[in-house]
């Protein structure tokens, strides 16, 4: 049995009941009588095998990349309860023997994570204060965010939810309450599937979620925030495209790519499949010191994305989460980079430079 990796100590994914494969459509099933579960629901997919075989040991990660033993020892001491997780497709893009590789810096723990700085906290956006029901956040006007899974396909050291209590993520018993909450608030027009990463959930589950949401008449859009098409491009398969295209809701996918070296031929093909299927794809990146705080790097990233018909959406100022202070770039430097990008790229290729603020109902534009 494959075991998905979680962000914390518990394995959490969106489950709609233990007997969903056999009892979908039975009385009391959380999604009602119209759900049809595919016969292939229990089949192990290629992306699941890749995820199950991902590197989870910093010593093994350093060994595979030919990095010094002292770096492996530092990484082992610095995980701070947030373990390593790196799948092979992402690993293959990291330069062997280079401790300063920008992709490696996103996934290898360093001693700087242990710095105790009062302005860097476990819940920098006060998401705990936005919980409307288990697994449901009401952060923005007109939108609800579903924490659909506590699992990810890669553990990014800068993740603003690295301390999130994923044991509170959506589970089977909570699902009916989430649907009732969304149905009761007619001002909600859009639902965002987030996590963790929602695409660590099997497609037959995601299809059920999309169907249930589509039956709420005031919902118009479904947005999926994911890093899977970047770190495991094999995740973009026929089953995923089928449910994305099969709902009445306007579906959008927001991927997360921070550096042009993350985009290889397989990632390009995966993004192309999504766009060719009629799914608008946007990208969000995080501005990080030593990774992409350089105009040439950012121009290369955003130029490559628009070549692939992916729209640069946001460049985020780093959220001040505990353990990530060493990645922070001063906002003035970010503004200067945006000015330089505007002089080099067409307007549609320059993302909005934004910051999330505790208690705010929208992102703050920093330009």
Polypeptide structure, described:
The protein has 367 residues and is of the alpha/beta class. It has a single domain, classed as TIM Barrel, CATH 3.20.20. Helix content is 30%, strand content 13%. The protein has 13 helices and 10 strands. The protein has helices at residues 20-23, 46-52, 58-64, 69-77, 88-91, 104-107, 172-184, 203-214, 228-231, 238-245, 265-276, 295-307, 331-342, and strands at 131-133, 136-140, 143-147, 190-194, 221-226, 250-256, 281-286, 311-316, 352-355, 364-365. It has a 10-stranded mixed beta sheet. Helix 12 (295-307) links the parallel strand 7 and strand 8. It starts with 19 loop residues before the first helix and ends with a strand. Residues 1-40 have low confidence and may be disordered.
Core attributes:
single chain; 367 residues; alpha/beta; TIM Barrel; ten-stranded mixed sheet; 13 helices; 10 strands; disordered N terminus
CATH fold title: TIM Barrel
Number of strands: 10
Tell me which oligomeric state these chains represent.
single chain
Main sheet: which strands, in order across? 1-2-3-4-5-6-7-8-9-10
Structural class of the secondary elements? alpha/beta
Radius of gyration: 20 Å
Strand content: 5-15%
Could you state the order of secondary-structure elements as H and E? HHHHHHEEEHEHEHHEHEHEHEE
CATH-scheme architecture? Alpha-Beta Barrel
Report the principal-axis shape.
globular
In the CATH scheme, the class would be Alpha Beta
List the total number of helices: 13
What is the CATH superfamily label?
Answer: Aldolase class I
Helix content range: 25-40%
What low-confidence regions span 5 or more consecutive residues with pLDDT below 50?
1-40
Average pLDDT, to the nearest integer?
87
Largest sheet: 10 strands, mixed
Number of domains: 1
How far is the first residue's CA from the last residue's CA?
Answer: 49 Å
């Amino acid at each position: 049995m494959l075991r998905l990796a979680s962000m914390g100590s518990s394995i959490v994914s969106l489950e709609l009941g233990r007997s969903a494969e056999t009892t979908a459509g039975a009385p009391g099933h959380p999604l009602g009588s119209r759900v049809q579960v595919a016969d292939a629901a229990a089949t192990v997919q290629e992306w699941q095998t890749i995820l199950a075989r991902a590197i989870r040991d910093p010593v093994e990660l350093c060994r595979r990349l030919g990095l010094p033993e002292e770096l492996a020892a530092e990484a082992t001491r610095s995980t701070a309860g947030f373990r390593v997780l790196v799948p092979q497709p992402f690993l293959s893009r990291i330069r062997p023997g280079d401790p300063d590789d920008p992709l490696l810096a996103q996934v290898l723990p360093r001693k700087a994570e242990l710095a105790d700085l009062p302005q860097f906290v476990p819940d920098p956006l006060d998401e705990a204060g936005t919980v409307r029901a288990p697994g449901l956040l009401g952060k923005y006007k007109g939108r609800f965010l579903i924490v659909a899974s506590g699992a990810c396909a890669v553990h990014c050291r800068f993740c603003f939810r690295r301390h999130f209590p994923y044991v509170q993520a959506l589970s089977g018993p909570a699902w009916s309450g989430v649907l009732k909450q969304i149905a009761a608030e007619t001002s909600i027009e859009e639902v965002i599937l987030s996590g963790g990463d929602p695409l660590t959930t099997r497609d037959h589950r995601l299809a059920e979620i999309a169907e249930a949401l589509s039956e709420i008449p005031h919902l118009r859009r479904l947005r999926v925030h994911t890093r899977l098409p970047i770190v495991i491009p094999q995740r973009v398969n026929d089953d995923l495209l089928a449910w994305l295209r099969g709902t009445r809701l306007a579906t959008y996918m927001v991927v997360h790519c921070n550096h042009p070296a993350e985009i290889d031929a397989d990632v390009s093909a995966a993004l192309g499949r999504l766009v060719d299927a009629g799914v608008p794809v946007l990208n969000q990146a995080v501005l990080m010191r030593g990774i992409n705080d350089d105009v040439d790097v950012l121009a290369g990233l955003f130029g490559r994305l628009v070549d692939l018909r992916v729209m640069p959406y946001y460049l985020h100022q780093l959220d001040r989460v505990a353990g990530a202070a060493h990645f922070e770039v001063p906002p003035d430097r970010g503004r200067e980079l945006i000015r330089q990008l505007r002089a080099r790229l067409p307007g549609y290729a320059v993302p909005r430079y934004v910051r999330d603020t505790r208690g705010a109902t929208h992102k703050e534009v920093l330009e």
